[in-house]
């Protein structure tokens, strides 16, 4: 892609076609159908504590050491988070601190309302997420003499803080973002879970810190200037790296971090990181046993719910594994999937096969391009900034479908990052063998090469490793740039190009890689994906599900599974040209062979063709020269050339147009307020 785009602006004919480009997912229209398959005898049962409060919500607050905080300011913030918690709101206000929250009750018990305090009211907390081990922690805290007034997992936090202080984070198993106020020490404590399932943003102005689950709650008094470096990040890799957001000065708390604020100032600290040290799991049997044991335990923990619970089912191996394990603990449940009219992009037959296997009530939504123009602005409103690939369209449709039937869904996120499932890892696999002088291991896999070749195709198994020799981005970062630096120079409006001062997001990616303890190419790519790509996917999942007041859980991203995966020898993760070798081996007795062996797709749709055909007039309207000049970020002439080349069929710039469409729609929406 880099070579093709560079040639577009330097070659004698203007635009050239792009090679080695796969269609990206995108486009949608709504058509749903549901069907039930017979339920076989239950394996075990899902016990439910009828007194347990399970909440997901939105949180916010303002800290200003010497100022009076107005509850009305908190109310404005919680109002824009209503979709995250439609059931009720709550506030705690004292001089210097104000906490607010919106509650989505997984069971409606009045005693679960937040903010929640300890016995004497000196520690207060607002919490978004789930603590899956809260009952065990509660038992330990009760032994220490602490008295609980509720059955909520949230209350565990205030008493755990009294016992362990900041070290309470090491005790937690769950997905969470919380804000805790320590009245005695006049200190604010913000924290986010290890892998970034739940979001938290903050804005520091002088000594004041405001924070919220979503960006929109922090820009109520006017939109801050755009962060030009974040825009360059997005144009480069369709992501936004580090703490920065699209709004200058507003930051995201990173996964595995906490922030402390007092009258002396604010500072962030890392409390957890994924460590790829010397592998300690070196045989297949140990890897398989560990994977299955931890997956079973994690899924069982995350099934705790007193409201209807279901699962997303893409037809891929990870979501299918979660569903099969869940079936061992539940008599019946719902599964949700998307189908595409184009057979070559449709995984719904595999999803239906798994649904039949477990006897779930299966529901499908059909994705078509016709409603993309109406859906994408809504999606961008909830995302707050453009960060999602085209797969967000079917993701949105599945969330909407699921919300009609359940309030909690299990998903399969994380399996590709932790167990090496992305096609770009083929390049690292080959590079690893060459660097370590172990080319013989490649030849040992020739016997399995034929079968994998037929499944994965020439582009993935040969094209990516060969192309990685030419593309430093693909080889070093596992992702090819959407726009290379030479094109971004032509794509940004002159004023923003000058403001960017030559910023290159690769400096951030290199800094992340420098923190990785391993020198093994595959491990380094996995670490980079876990620290940069995965948090973006999880942010999107949170916003999309919360837009429909739907709680999304991610059993594979239990931090114990992540730590275990990092201990597995890389030659077990990709073996004999087989990606995600350990889960494939572990699940062959549980899932049909066609589900395990079919190529990874992940909600793919022919975005290039849809933009060129069904959505061509919409593309032209959104990327109109006049609108682009009005928003003032992009160079209208350069965008016009890209649009013209794609719509005429002279080049395939589907991925590039998707990025530009998202950015321009977001800019137009931000300008309109």
Structure described in brief:
This protein is of the alpha+beta class and 673 residues long.
Structure characteristics:
single chain, 673 residues, alpha+beta, Rossmann fold, Glutamine Phosphoribosylpyrophosphate, subunit 1, domain 1, 3 domains, 6-stranded mixed beta sheet, 6-stranded antiparallel beta sheet, 29 helices, globular
Describe the fold and architecture.
It is built from 29 helices and 18 strands. The protein is of the alpha+beta class and 673 residues long. The chain has three domains: 88 residues, no CATH class; 219 residues, 3-Layer(aba) Sandwich (Rossmann fold), CATH 3.40.50.620; 216 residues, Glutamine Phosphoribosylpyrophosphate, subunit 1, domain 1 (4-Layer Sandwich). The strands form three sheets. A six-stranded mixed beta sheet has the order 1-16-15-14-17-18, with helices on both faces. It has a six-stranded antiparallel beta sheet with strand order 3-4-2-10-9-11, covered by helices on one side. The longest helix is centred in the last third of the chain and has 27 residues. The radius of gyration is 25 Å and the shape is globular. About 8% of the residues have low confidence.
Layout of strands and helices, then pairs:
Layout: H1 2-10, E1 31-36, E2 55-63, H2 71-79, E3 88-94, E4 97-105, E5 116-117, E6 123-131, H3 134-143, H4 153-164, E7 174-182, E8 187-192, E9 201-205, E10 208-212, H5 228-237, E11 250-252, E12 257-262, E13 265-270, H6 284-302, E14 309-312, H7 317-327, E15 334-339, H8 348-358, E16 361-366, H9 372-383, H10 392-403, E17 408-410, H11 415-419, H12 425-435, H13 439-444, H14 446-456, H15 458-468, H16 472-477, H17 485-491, H18 494-500, H19 506-514, H20 521-547, E18 551-553, H21 559-565, H22 570-573, H23 581-587, H24 593-597, H25 607-612, H26 616-622, H27 625-631, H28 636-647, H29 654-672
Parallel strand pairs: 14-15, 14-17, 15-16, 17-18
Antiparallel strand pairs: 1-16, 2-4, 2-10, 3-4, 5-6, 6-7, 7-8, 8-12, 9-10, 9-11, 12-13
Helix pairs in contact: 3-4, 6-21, 6-23, 7-8, 9-29, 10-20, 12-15, 12-20, 14-15, 27-28, 28-29
């Amino acid at each position: 892609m880099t070579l093709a785009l560079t040639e577009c602006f330097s070659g004698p004919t203007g635009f050239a076609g792009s090679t080695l480009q796969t269609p990206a997912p995108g486009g949608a229209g709504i058509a749903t159908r549901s069907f039930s398959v017979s339920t076989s005898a239950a394996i075990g049962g899902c016990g439910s504590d009828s007194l347990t409060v399970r909440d997901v919500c939105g949180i916010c607050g303002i800290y200003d050491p010497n100022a009076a905080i107005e509850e009305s300011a908190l109310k404005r913030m919680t109002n824009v988070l209503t979709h995250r918690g439609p059931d009720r709101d709550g506030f705690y206000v004292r001089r210097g601190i104000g906490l607010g929250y919106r509650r989505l009750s997984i069971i409606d018990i009045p005693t679960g309302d937040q903010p929640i305090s300890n016995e004497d009211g000196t520690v207060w907390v607002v919490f978004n997420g789930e603590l899956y081990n809260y009952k065990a922690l509660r038992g330990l805290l009760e032994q220490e003499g602490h008295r609980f007034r509720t059955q909520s997992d949230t209350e565990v936090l205030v008493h755990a803080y009294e016992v362990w202080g900041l070290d309470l984070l090491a005790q937690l198993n769950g997905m969470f973002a919380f804000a805790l106020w320590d009245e005695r020490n006049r200190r604010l404590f913000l924290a986010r879970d290890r892998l970034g399932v739940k979001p938290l943003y903050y804005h520091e102005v002088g000594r004041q810190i405001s924070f919220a689950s979503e960006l929109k709650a922090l820009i109520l008094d006017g939109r801050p200037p755009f962060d030009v470096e974040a825009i360059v990040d997005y144009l480069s890799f369709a992501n936004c790296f580090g703490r920065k957001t699209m709004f200058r000065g507003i930051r995201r708390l990173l996964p595995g971090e906490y922030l402390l604020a007092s009258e002396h100032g604010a500072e962030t600290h890392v409390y957890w990181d994924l460590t790829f040290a010397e592998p300690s799991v070196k045989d297949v049997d140990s890897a398989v046993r560990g994977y299955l044991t931890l997956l079973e335990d994690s899924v069982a923990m995350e099934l705790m719910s007193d409201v209807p619970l279901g699962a997303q089912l893409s037809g891929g191996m990870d979501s299918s594994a979660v569903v099969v394990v869940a079936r061992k603990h539940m008599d019946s449940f719902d599964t949700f999937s998307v189908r595409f009219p184009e057979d070559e992009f449709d995984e719904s037959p595999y999803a239906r096969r798994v649904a039949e296997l477990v006897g779930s009530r299966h529901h499908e939504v059909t994705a078509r391009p016709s409603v993309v123009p109406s859906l994408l602005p809504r999606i961008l409103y909830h995302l707050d900034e453009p960060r999602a690939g085209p797969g967000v369209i079917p993701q949105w449709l599945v969330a909407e479908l699921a919300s009609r039937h359940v309030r909690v869904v299990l998903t399969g996120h994380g399996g590709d990052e932790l167990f090496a499932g992305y096609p770009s890892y083929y390049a690292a696999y080959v590079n690893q063998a060459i660097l370590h002088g172990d080319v013989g291991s490649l030849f040992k896999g020739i016997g399995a090469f034929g079968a994998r070749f037929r499944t994965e195709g020439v582009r993935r198994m040969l094209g990516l490793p060969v192309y990685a020799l030419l593309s430093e981005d693909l080889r070093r970062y596992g992702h090819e740039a959407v726009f290379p630096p030479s094109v971004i120079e032509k794509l940004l409006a002159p004023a923003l190009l000058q403001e960017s001062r030559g910023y290159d997001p690769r400096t951030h990616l290199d800094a992340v890689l420098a923190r990785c303890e391993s020198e093994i190419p595959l491990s380094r790519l996995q670490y980079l994906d876990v620290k940069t790509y995965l948090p973006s996917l999880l942010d999107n999942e949170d916003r999309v599900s919360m837009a429909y007041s739907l709680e999304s859980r991610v059993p594979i991203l239990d931090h114990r599974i992540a730590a275990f995966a990092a201990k597995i020898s890389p030659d077990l993760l990709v073996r004999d040209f087989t990606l995600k070798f350990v889960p494939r081996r572990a699940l062959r007795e549980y899932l049909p062979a066609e589900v395990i062996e079919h190529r990874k797709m992940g909600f793919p749709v022919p975005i290039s063709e849809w933009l060129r055909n069904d959505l061509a007039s919409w593309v032209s309207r959104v990327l109109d020269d006049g609108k682009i000049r009005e928003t003032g970020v992009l160079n209208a002439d350069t965008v016009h050339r890209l649009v013209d080349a794609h719509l005429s069929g002279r080049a395939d710039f589907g991925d590039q147009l998707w990025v530009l469409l998202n950015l321009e729609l977001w800019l137009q929406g931000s300008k309109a307020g």
